[in-house]
Amino acid sequence: MAAVQDTIREKVFISPGRYIQGAHAIQRAGHHIGRLGQSALIIADDFVWQMAGQALTKSLEASKVSFEYARFGGEASSHEIDRLVALGEQALVVVGFGGGKTLDTAKGVADRLGTPCAILPTTASTDAPTSALSVIYTDEGVFDSYRFYDHNPDLVLVDTHLIAQAPPRFLASGIADALATWVEARAVIRSGAANMAGGLPTLLGQTIGEKCEQVLFEQALLAWEANRAGVVTPALEAVVEANTLLSGLGFESGGLAAAHAIHNGFTALHGAIHELTHGEKVAYGTLTQLVLDQTPQVELERYLTLYIALGLPVTLEALKLAQATDNDLMRVAETALQEGESSHNLAYHLAPTDIVGAIRAVDAHAKAFMARQHHH
Ligand SMILES: [Zn+2]
């Protein structure tokens, strides 16, 4: 994710080896993981392991794949990756089973061990599963860096039945992460900057980003309602695919811009903002980029309408930053603008005060929009 470089001439598109999605797909996980290696290190947190560990181990046993369970400590940090690498020296395949941070950690462990990597998301809350990179945080949960790998996961297997049982807040977070995809990729295409694979976006990368957004505006609310009812519907299947596959390929081979950089800036603050999910902070970052991009009112309100319907944060109060000072927001802006950040992929130059102003403007626009809605 270099800044705009005159030297980039080649287009690059990368993707995982195999993507499988369907209700109860986990029952076939052993078959697919066994093709990668007959001895698995499974990384999952206690909650996921108790909820769904048995379905996975039953499937592995049926396919005669031996396994060892390694409990995930909760943060995708360098320390955590080191610790798990030491536990996995015998493993022939690393399996990440859980949410975005578990999966990012598993990718780091597989890379260090030099084994294939299987990714089994239990929520559709981020677009982490398919990419050849991890977002590394400090042990305290502050954004640290992106870690890039030689190749994408060999297998991504998504059980939509499991996802339908997860809290709808996770799906909404994934929708927010996926709505950022096209907003950021089109900015990268406009500026001629590099995607996450270090090349120019292909037509396929662009098409995936556009399709991702289209699916979400058409199906996201229906999928969220199905998730609230705990059922798998065609709309839920479509949105799980948009959140996971389309958003994952779309951001990696399309590129990131200001929305994720501003998200990373928010993680530098202390306090209750850390209670928000990745996608929730990305939602606010996306709105901030839309303001910076001088998005027409009708278009901005199209996004606001969907975020509000899904219970995503569109005000500073909802972001638990009602008391944020200009100094706090300057810290967010300066973090978002640090060297190597994707905010430099925009076609225009940004100063920290531009970002602070846009963050405050999102709050003002959202409040005015909600007041007008209320009035009607
Ligand atoms: Zn994201």
Automatic annotation (TrEMBL):
Organism domain of life: Bacteria
Pathway the protein takes part in: Polyol metabolism; glycerol fermentation; glycerone phosphate from glycerol (oxidative route): step 1/2
CDD domains: GlyDH (cd08170)
EC number: 1.1.1.6
Required co-factors: Zn(2+)
Annotated family: Belongs to the iron-containing alcohol dehydrogenase family.
Name the record gives this protein: Glycerol dehydrogenase
